[in-house]
Design brief:
Elements lengths: L2 H10 L4 E4 L6 E4 L2 E4 L6 H12 L4 H7 L1 E8 L2 E10 L2 E8 L25 E6 L6 H15 L3 E6 L12 E6 L7 H8 L6 E4 L5 H12 L3 E6 L4 H10 L6 H11 E12 L4 E10 L2 H8 L6 H7 L8 H10 L30 H8 L22 H8 L1
Parallel strand pairs: 7-11, 7-12, 8-9, 8-10, 10-11
Antiparallel strand pairs: 1-2, 1-6, 2-3, 4-5, 5-6, 12-13
Helix pairs in contact: 5-6, 6-8, 8-9
């Protein structure tokens, strides 16, 4: 028994999560319900798994914090892994991410969501309870920009869940703890890195929220997540994270920069045998902005009910749209489009001077096989600065 075989088993069973605890059988979360699988795992075995996956360099930090967050690709499956110390020993909580590149179509989300990322600046919040697919929706929105626009995207995550291959966009992904010490430092750095789009994996602390709001006010499109059950609660939660004496100023700032809030939950559809996101979508109209500025969050619900013409969706109306939907993406059954040179979007970041002109001016022959304005192909790799320095030694 090893960690790779357990993850392979979870993937075969269609599980979204794998839980390992010393002395207990592995538990798989399938369609939202936990099921046991296999024999109990000894504490010493789990300790060995933890030591191997964390590595000797980071092991002292785990012993100090008693937890570690990381992401790995194991058995071809991208995993978000939390290693924790419990009363029984070392345990694991592993989220198995989608094996396909997240897009709005592949997540069965409403196509109107792509209108949100057409904005050049402002704040988009994606909310929902834990395990509702917020990170996947964020990844789909980022991929929508990547496939269609030439923008500089900086993501700040803990840990990196989905890796992006730049197509039209120029993408940098930073992992908190590996590439930057904190969300706060990464946000301060980002304002000096000429970004067009910022993606904040999660707004946890008031300082992170403050810097995120500041970034959205300074001409950047910012996408972030927050834990809440609906749109009104998401906005209220951001405001309530700050001391009472500055909440009025925060609400005014939030009203000025907010573009939309997407609240979602996953619902199993037995006829498709998959879980599908159900969404509530709040668009920041003038009326909604006034409610936020005056802290009348309870009035947002009425705006959602009457705001269909502005692109708003209540859970009830969104469910009616899902019931009428005819075409679905079903992982493993819907054929993937074949990528080719002609079908992939070409990068629209042309060189300032073409290869031919550059070589003519410099007197050097153009490189054999070079294609002016060719597609950007950068494959993300795991590791960070420490790994690069080790290779150079």
């Amino acid at each position: 028994m090893d960690l790779a075989s357990l993850i392979a088993l979870a993937h075969e069973q269609g599980a979204s999560d794998l839980h390992l605890e010393a002395g207990l059988s592995p538990a798989l979360r399938i369609r939202g319900a936990l099921r046991s699988a296999g024999q109990p795992v000894p504490a010493q075995t789990l300790l060995g798994f933890a030591r191997e996956i964390i590595g000797d360099a980071q092991w002292p930090g785990f012993l100090e914090r008693r937890s570690a967050d990381l992401s790995r690709t194991i058995q071809g499956v991208r995993c978000r892994i939390n290693v924790l110390q419990s009363s029984r020993g070392v345990g694991f909580a592993i989220r198995l991410l989608a094996s396909f590149q997240a897009t709005l179509e592949k997540l069965n989300l409403h196509p109107d969501l792509r209108k949100l990322v057409s904005n050049q600046h402002g704040l988009i919040l994606v909310s929902g309870p834990t395990g509702s697919g917020k990170s996947s929706t964020l990844a789909a929105l980022i991929q929508e920009i990547n496939l269609n626009e030439t923008r500089h995207i900086v993501t700040i995550e803990s840990p990196i869940e989905y890796t992006f291959r730049p197509r039209k966009a120029y993408i940098r992904q930073r992992e908190v703890g590996r590439d930057t010490p904190s969300f706060e430092q990464a946000l301060l750095d980002a304002l000096r890195e000429d970004p067009d789009v910022l993606m904040v994996g999660e707004m946890r602390e008031p300082e992170t929220m403050r810097l995120t709001l500041n970034a959205s006010e300074t001409g950047h499109l910012v996408l972030a997540t927050v834990h809440s059950s609906n749109c009104a609660e998401a906005v209220n939660r951001v405001a309530a994270a700050f001391p009472a004496e500055i909440q009025s100023a925060v609400c005014a700032q939030l009203a000025d920069c907010l573009l939309a809030v997407v609240s979602q939950r996953l619902h199993f559809r037995p006829e498709l045998n998959i879980r599908v996101p159900e969404c509530e979508i709040l668009v920041a109209t003038h009326a909604v902005k006034n409610f936020i500025r005056n802290r009348d969050f309870f009035k947002i619900i009425s705006s959602l009910e009457t705001g269909a013409e502005h692109g708003m969706w209540t859970f009830r109306r969104y469910n009616a749209w899902l019931d009428s939907r005819k075409q679905w993406y079903i992982p493993g059954e819907t054929p993937e489009p074949v990528e080719s040179e002609s079908s992939e979007p070409a990068a629209t970041l042309p060189p300032l001077i073409s290869s031919a002109k550059s070589s003519a001016k410099s007197g050097r022959p153009a490189e054999k096989g070079a294609k002016p304005g060719g597609r950007i192909e950068i494959e993300p790799v795991e590791g960070g600065l420490e790994d690069i320095l080790k290779k150079l030694e």
